[in-house]
Design a protein that fits this description.
By secondary structure, the chain is mainly α. The chain contains twelve helices and four strands. Helix 3 runs antiparallel to helix 4, helix 4 runs antiparallel to helix 7 and helix 4 crosses helix 9. It is globular and about 50 Å long. 33% of the residues are buried.
């Protein structure tokens, strides 16, 4: 488990990972190859809209996908900064280290992030019908909450492991497993399913979607609050052929 993961489950101070020197690795060794294909992400959201509309799992998946933000940013949203009708529609990510919700890039990570009108409607339904009326340890009202207050980072991972398994949506298992006997149908073992994906995979899938749609690189960088180098190395999952084909669209002699 990484220092950041330990901070997310309150095993250590959340800022500890920012104070540690990470080991030097060779180029490519620190890059995860997993991702959530944009097509799958959209299918999962459509299923959640029908099966569990405005549930906490739905809101988590919806915010991760629409914003492309890190879980720490979404975890830090409060009702006063995430009531979309008041902000146009958008959510406000704010660096608040003194009250338990730092952003990875600190004050530089503070930003508004636009979301769709559909997302606005689901968030409003979640707040009205499903969100527990709670505050966190600092008296703040978290948007994504449990009966005990602000959720921990592991809540996001468990939600993603659960909803990204094909069998959870009634799809045939792509791994030739008997669903009745497969241990990964249990939420405690969902992460072991070869098809399950993490919040980081949603983020990389969103970048891939943007780049396939020719969204300018600068806009993607600003929206996801990341550098060009990190964007290329960790999040853009287009194949080399896809990138070459897209480049050809801008070459007049091809």
């Amino acid at each position: 488990m990484s220092p950041a993961d330990c901070g997310n489950i309150d095993a250590v101070e959340p800022e500890l990972y920012e104070q540690l020197t990470l080991p030097v690795v060779n180029e490519g060794e620190d890059v995860s190859e997993t991702t959530l294909d944009p097509e799958r992400a959209i299918e999962i959201l459509k299923y959640l809209e029908k099966a569990q509309p405005a549930s906490r799992d739905h809101i988590i998946m919806l915010l991760l996908w629409e914003t492309g933000a890190r879980t720490g940013a979404i975890r830090g949203l409060d009702l006063d900064g995430s009531h979309p009708r008041l902000s146009g529609p958008a959510v406000h990510f704010v660096h608040r280290p003194d009250t338990g919700t730092p952003l990875k890039n600190k004050k530089k990570g503070t930003r508004w992030n636009r979301i769709s009108e559909k997302a606005v409607a689901y968030i409003e339904d979640f707040i009205e019908y499903h969100r527990p009326d709670v505050t966190d340890d600092y008296g703040r009202e978290p948007l994504v909450a449990s009966n005990h207050g602000r959720v921990v980072g592991n809540t996001f991972r468990r939600a993603l492991y659960r909803v990204t398994r094909p069998c959870w949506r009634g799809k045939e298992c792509p791994h030739d497993r008997d669903v009745d006997d497969c241990e990964t149908t249990s939420i405690d073992h969902a992460s072991k399913c070869p098809s399950s994906r993490s919040p980081h995979d949603v983020r990389s899938g969103r970048v891939t979607y943007y780049r396939r749609e020719d969204v300018p690189r600068k806009i993607v960088q600003e929206r996801l609050n990341t550098s060009e180098d990190i964007l290329d190395r960790h999040y853009d999952r287009r194949s080399d052929r896809e990138q070459a084909d897209q480049c050809s669209d801008f070459l007049p002699d091809l």
